[in-house]
Amino acid sequence: MTSAYVILGLAVLAIWLLFRKKKTGVVALDEIPDKWHTILTREVRYYRELPAAQQEVFLREVARFLARIPVNGVQLEVSLEDRLLVAGSAVIPLFGFPDMDYQHLDEVILYPGHFDREFNFENPKELITGMVGNGPMEGKMILSRKALHIGFDNTQDKHNVGIHEFIHLYDKEDGVIDGVPEAFVDKSFVLPWLKLIEGKINDIHSNDSEIRDYGGTNRQEFLAVAGEYFFERPHLLQKKHPELYQMMVKTFNQDPSQLLARKEVKTKPLGRNSPCPCGSGKKYKHCCLK
Predict the structure, then answer these.
(1) Is-contact 29 56, C-beta < 8 A?
(2) 27-38 burial by CB neighbour count: b if 16+ within 10 A, else e?
(3) I want to staple 276 with a disulfide (CB 3.0 to 4.6 A). Which of 22, 114, 141, 287 is the partner?
(4) In this predicted model, which residue has the larger pLDDT, 133 or 7?
């Protein structure tokens, strides 16, 4: 009887370990292709300026995200670079919360360019580049692939559509996108936060702010717009809006001004026929550019 209990206990333990591995999505660093590091270093400033140990954490979080969430395309073939930029956009807002997942996401869909609310392409009257779905599209995020890449190519414009939409999902972790993310729920700084963003939105409406106009739409859009600013130009936000910056540090449990240099060092872009920096010996166009 004792041996039967032992066998049963071992079986339960094995099932628990299997479930735990599936839930956390732990990926060994040596299972992640070297070219992921190459692409992220080239394309994502946030990753590029992390210390090596934190780059390893970032890589594992990217792998964990991609193991959970499919990235599919409409009228386009999704590349490895596309998938890594989507995953990088997802990891950055949650990097201060290890092992936290987006509970309201089951798929990311890439469109070639902008779209309208009916998901039609290239409607000049409505130029949407990112959307968190609801109703029939609950659990879906739609992104313009073109806008996704531009967001990482230009790190000086305080705008990144991928980060913007994932901040909305972070905001939704308490069940509703309302500009008060889960980190603020039942905390003493909820009311100060609401008072602060009300004042910042009023400044936008009065043309007395360099925060992007779209942030004046409502408090949920303000959170996402200010969050883009926070991750793209942390030193500038800290200088121009110190109180807001400190609130964002609490919101995301991280301080990117301690990670990113005040000025980004630009690197010379690789040509299609250049040797691939991953060390494969192939031309760039036949390796990591694919």
Answers:
(1) yes
(2) beeeeeeebbbb
(3) 287
(4) 133
Give the pLDDT of residue 275.
Answer: 62
Name the band, by pLDDT with cuts 50, 70 and 90, for residue 281.
low
Q: Rg of the chain's alpha carbons, rounded to an integer?
A: 21
What pLDDT sits at residue 60? 95
In the block, which residue shows the tokens 């964002």?
A: 248
The CA distance from 287 to 128, in Å, is 32
Q: Which two tokens stand for residue 11?
A: 């079986």
DSSP string of 44-108, one letter each residue: -HHHHTS-HHHHHHHHHHHHHHHHHS-EEESSSPPPHHHHHHHHHHHHHHHTTSTT---TT-SEE
278 alpha carbon, distance to own chain's centre: 24
In angstroms, the CA 279 to CA 233 distance is 32
Task: For residue 202, count other CB atoms closer than 10 A to its CB.
Answer: 12
Domains in the chain with CATH codes: 22-286 (3.40.390.10)
**CB of 139 closer than 8 Å to CB of 68:** no
pLDDT digits (tens, 9 = 90+) for 224-259: 999 999 999 999 999 999 999 999 999 999 999 998
